[in-house]
């Protein structure tokens, strides 16, 4: 039996790292890393949840993908 570790794609911080860097989800720090979207099949619900969690935004466990996207859009909006 093997345990899998969740990972996320982040923007590389040097030119020799390619298009993205794969890091452990638990190591993601929004003050250091820029999360990259999965361009293959669009943003997945789990990706939205990970981004919200990284930003410290609470969301209901039964939130839809649209609800999560709305919360993320609000969290990413510039302060007025």
Average pLDDT, all residues: 83
- Rg: 14 Å
SSE arrangement, N to C:
EEHH
For the biggest sheet, the summary is: 2 strands, antiparallel
Helix content: 25-40%
Strand order of the largest sheet: 1-2
In percent terms, what proportion of residues is strand?
A: 5-15%
Q: How many discrete structural domains?
A: 1
Structural class: alpha+beta
Individual helix count: 2
* Strands, total number: 2
Report what the structure shows.
This protein has 80 residues and is α+β, with helices and mostly antiparallel strands. The chain has one domain (7-76). It is built from two helices and two strands, in the order ββαα. A two-stranded antiparallel sheet has the order 1-2. Helix 1 runs parallel beside helix 2 (65-76). The longest helix is centred in the last third of the chain and has 12 residues, at 65-76. The chain is globular. The mean pLDDT is 83.
Offer a quick outline of the entry.
With about 80 residues, the chain is α+β, with helices and mostly antiparallel strands.
Structural topology:
Blueprint: E1 7-10, E2 21-24, H1 45-54, H2 65-76
Main attributes of the structure:
80 residues, alpha+beta, two-stranded antiparallel ribbon, 2 helices, 2 strands
